[in-house]
# Entry
Amino acid sequence: MADEILRIEGVRKGFGGLLAVDGCSLSVQEGTIVGLIGPNGAGKSTLFDLISGFVSPDSGSIFFSGREIVGLPAYKIARLGLIRTFQIPRSLMRMTVLENMMLGGQNQVGENIFANIIRRGKVQAEEISIENKAVEILKFFDILRMQDEYAGSMSGGQKKMLEMARALMADPRLLLLDEPFAGLNPALSERLIEKVKKLRENGLTIMIIEHAIPYVLALSDELYVLNKGAILAKGRPDQVISDPRVFEAYLGAGPDAQP
Ligand SMILES: Nc1ncnc2c1ncn2[C@@H]1O[C@H](COP(=O)(O)OP(=O)(O)OP(=O)(O)O)[C@@H](O)[C@H]1O
Ligand SMILES: [Mg+2]
# Structure
C-alpha cells in the first residue's frame, strides 16, 4: 500500500459565528489524486487554506508526511513541498509570464518533477537551472510563447495555466488545486486533464476542488464530499456521486446547485 502523505484529524475553523470547517478528517495516499466536492460555501477553499497554512485551525491536527504542520507559517509548509493554487489566480499582472515563474521557484535548483517528465534519462535534475525549469514547465502547459508577455494580457484560461505552472516551480510533492477547470473552455479542460494525469504518473500527489463532476470523475482516485464544513461522504468517485445524501446536499444548497 502507498504511503499516507497527508492526514487531517478533526480540523475545525470558525469565522465569527460560522463554522466554515467543522471537524474534518481525511487521508491522502501518496501518488493519488483526491477530489473534493461540495456545494458553494461548504468550506472547501477554507480547508485548503488550513492545509497550506494560510489560515490556522481553531483545533485539530494536520500531518504532512507524518509531520504535524499546524502552526507552521505558509512559506515553511510550502518549502516542505505542500503547494496550493488559488480559486482566483494570483499572478502578478504587471510582470511577464517568465518573471512570474521565476518568482514561483524556490531558490534551489534541486530535484523537480519536471526533470523526470521532460528530460527523463537525458539530463541530471541538478543541471537544470531555474530558468530552464520555468521554460520546460511553460512548455508543458502550452504557454511558452507567452513568456515575455505581461501576465495581465493573458486570457482567463491562460492565467489558470500560469497559476498551476507557477505552483510547479516550487517543486511540490503535494499540490492543492482550487477549481483549476473553472473558466476553461471544454477543449482546454480536456488538455488539462491529460496534463494533471501526467503529473500523477510522475509521482505528484494532487488534491483537487472542482465543481465539474465529469472532470472530477476523470481524475480522482478517491473522492470526498464536504457539506456545511463536514465530510458527508468519501470513497470511490462513481459510488460517492450516486450516493443519495450527496444529491440531497446539493439540492439543499439551492436551485442552481448540482453535483
Ligand atoms: N476569511 C473569511 N472570513 C469570514 N468568512 C469566511 C472566510 N473565508 C470563508 N468564509 C466563509 O466560510 C464558508 C466556507 O467558504 P469557502 O470559501 O471555504 O467555501 P467553498 O466550499 O470553497 O465554496 P465555493 O464552492 O463557492 O468556492 C462560507 O460561508 C464563507 O463565506
Ligand atoms: Mg471555494
Summary: Strands lie at 4-15, 18-29, 33-37, 59-64, 67-68, 82-84, 174-178, 205-209, 222-227, 230-235. Residues 186-201 form the longest helix (16 residues). The chain is about 35% helix and 25% strand.
